[in-house]
């Protein structure tokens, strides 16, 4: 990402806070070619829908009869306001959009760090996803399958079979700081599709993140930045760790989504090693010029 584009991204996010919210106001930067949509505004479900619609709508990504896996971050036993997990209203809206597009099944799942029952419940995601028509799935150890990886950090690793076998996968991360990986964004969220001992991944964490991202290619990424955790990530636990941005980012390029999200923290994508490594591996491009459509509610 060029310095000019980086600064422009920060200015757009600041200015969006002062735009009127009495309708959808679109500022398209290369709108015809945009493969990244950024919507600022509340409530979360409207921002989510607007961002996806700006890319052509969910029917571009999900077809009738598809079995879809939606992969939010449900890693921690935290209520929504603490920003440790994907916002339940963002998750619910993505489930609704998939159902409206004709999906046969929409399965919502993660492999939490903390107790899964508590994480699913206290995050609000289990209830919200079920009400929207999703199937809430708790991962079972027997359904992880050892698969060969690219070998940047890992030669093979157990990955959840349902993620591998779904017709479509939608990545639904939350934006947070992270003590080991600098930030946890879209590509880092794939660690919640993996089993095994994560401590081994941390030996070459950035390379391992890219290994998983090379394996799991989502039809769509919807990044929740309605509130971001700016300190003490990834678990947090204090409201002072959270900054409200009322922003949702949707895109088809995993690298571009994470590159844009890094700017929300005042960072360049190069400051987050796995983003630069992912570009080097051919997963996508950090350069955003002419690719972003900015919207406000």
Describe this structure in words.
With 297 residues, this protein is α/β, with parallel strands linked by helices. The chain has a domain at 56-222 and 254-270: Rossmann fold. 30% of the residues lie in helices and 25% in strands. Strands 1, 2, 3, 4, 5, 8, 9, 10, 11, 12 and 13 form an 11-stranded mixed beta sheet that branches. A two-stranded antiparallel sheet has the order 6-7. Helix 3 packs parallel to helix 5 (125-131) and helix 8 crosses helix 10 (273-280).
SSE map:
Elements: H1 3-16, E1 25-28, E2 36-40, H2 44-54, E3 67-72, H3 88-100, E4 105-110, H4 116-122, H5 125-131, E5 135-138, E6 144-148, E7 156-160, H6 161-165, E8 168-172, E9 174-178, E10 182-184, H7 198-201, H8 205-215, E11 220-229, E12 242-251, H9 254-263, H10 273-280, E13 292-296
Parallel strand pairs: 2-13, 3-4, 3-8, 4-5, 8-11, 9-11
Antiparallel strand pairs: 1-13, 2-12, 6-7, 9-10, 11-12
Helix pairs in contact: 2-3, 3-5, 8-10
């Amino acid at each position: 990402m060029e310095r000019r584009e980086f600064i422009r991204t920060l200015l757009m996010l600041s200015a969006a806070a002062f735009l009127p919210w009495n309708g959808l106001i679109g500022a398209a930067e290369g709108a015809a070619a945009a493969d990244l949509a950024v919507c600022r505004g509340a409530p979360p479900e409207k921002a989510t829908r607007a961002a996806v619609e700006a890319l052509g709508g969910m029917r571009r990504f999900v077809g009738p009869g598809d079995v879809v896996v939606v992969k939010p971050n449900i890693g921690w036993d935290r209520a929504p306001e603490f920003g440790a997990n994907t916002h339940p209203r963002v998750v619910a809206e993505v489930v609704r959009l998939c159902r409206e597009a004709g999906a046969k099944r929409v399965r919502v799942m993660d492999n939490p760090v903390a107790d899964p029952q508590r994480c699913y419940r206290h995050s609000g995601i289990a209830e919200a996803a079920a009400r929207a028509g999703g199937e809430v799935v708790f991962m079972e150890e027997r359904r992880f399958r050892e698969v060969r990886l690219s070998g940047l950090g890992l030669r093979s690793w157990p990955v959840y079979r349902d993620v591998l076998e779904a017709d479509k996968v939608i990545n639904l991360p939350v934006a947070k700081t992270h003590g080991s990986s600098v930030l946890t964004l879209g590509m880092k969220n794939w660690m919640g599709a993996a089993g095994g001992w994560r401590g081994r991944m941390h030996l070459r964490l950035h390379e391992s993140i890219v290994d998983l991202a090379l394996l799991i290619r989502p039809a769509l990424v919807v990044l929740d930045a309605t509130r971001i955790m700016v300190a003490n990530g990834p678990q947090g636990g204090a409201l002072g760790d959270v900054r409200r941005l009322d922003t949702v980012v949707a895109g088809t390029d995993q690298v571009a989504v994470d590159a844009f999200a890094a700017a929300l923290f005042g960072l360049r994508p190069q400051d987050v090693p796995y983003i630069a490594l992912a570009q080097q591996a051919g997963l996508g491009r950090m350069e955003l010029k002419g690719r972003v459509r900015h919207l406000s509610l």
